[in-house]
Amino acid sequence: MNILLIMYDQLRFDYLSCAGHPHLHTPNFDRVAAMGVRFTNAYVQSPICGGSRMCFTPVATPHPTGRSGTASLSGSAK
User: Fold this and answer.
1) Cα Rg of the chain, angstroms
2) pTM over 0.85
3) Model pLDDT for residues 20-32, shown as the tens digit of each residue
4) Which of the 8 DSSP states describes residue 63?
5) Burial category of 68 from C-beta neighbours within 10 Å (exposed 0-12, middle 13-18, buried 19 and up)
6) Which long-range contacts (CB under 8 A, 24 or more apart) does 19-25 make?
7) Which residues contact 59 (CB under 8 A, 6 or more apart)?
8) Distance between start and end Cα atoms, the chain
């Protein structure tokens, strides 16, 4: 089984033409979505994108990383 996980920043789920956006054209994402599975609902580990991405490391949750909120992004985490 092969799994392709695409993580991108600052792109809403409805900013894809395969999700019905009337003006944006995303043929490459549309082709990948047509060949695989496209999820329309999801849950995240942290509401902040940095904390969510940190959960792909061996640490199980964003809290031990110190990246669970925006204040920790300034380098104040220990």
Assistant:
1) 16
2) no
3) 999 999 999 899 8
4) G
5) buried
6) none
7) 65
8) 38
